[in-house]
Specification:
InterPro entries: ABC_transporter-like_ATP-bd, FeS-cluster_ATPase_SufC, P-loop_NTPase. The protein has 249 residues and is α/β, with parallel strands linked by helices. The protein contains nine helices and twelve strands. Strand 9, helix 6 and strand 10 form a beta-alpha-beta unit. Helix 3 runs parallel beside helix 5 and helix 5 runs parallel beside helix 6.
Amino acid sequence: MLNIENLSAEIDGKRILDGLTLTVPAGEIHAIMGPNGAGKSTLAYVLGGRPGYEVTGGSVSFCGQDLLDLEPHERAAAGLFLGFQYPVEIPGVSNVQFLREAANAQRKARGEEPLTGGEFLKLAKEKAGLLKLDMNMLKRNVNVGFSGGEKKRAEMVQMGILDPKFAVLDETDSGLDIDALRVVGEGINAIMRKPDKGVLLITHYQRLLDVVKPDKVSILANGRIAATGGPELALRLENEGYDAVMETA
């Protein structure tokens, strides 16, 4: 589903990714862990097509397409979803308006009929209930005045409505308390743990992986994948730290 080969990228002339190779097939949740500055968020931004991040080598294939040849909105229409570590606020735009426009824009790109107002509200209510987010929150401006946990829940509602093929989730557990972490984690499972979908889950901590149990775990260090293993690799990191595990790797 997602195949990254020897990917290198830089920002402001500084190389961050340095020959990264990674494959995530359909039906797999693949966790990426690594120390600060390893390139985890850069990887997410490069996959999403964020401006300012220059790819200097390698390739990325997504469902048979050259992902790097697509504009950000084309990547989204192709089924790629990027969850931000810090979801942005959009004053003056309600969540309902934003989500309906986003969903119908993607449906149009795929040649599908737009959702009617009633169809959209039914879908939004279903996904909001999944994330235990009050529908009144969706009437407010996007993320304005939301707590960290509310922002992450709203973002997962967005993911549920857009129903992507593949999700790149950048530290979705950041800023979540224990209860919100479980709700968000269970939301990820409900929306994305399916045979025809895939997830690249970027995190620092085992606590999210206790809920969203990964099929594989990779350590990203110095801009490349340094080690890959099963869920036990994340447990080793939690118990021993990066230095000890990386020394062994």
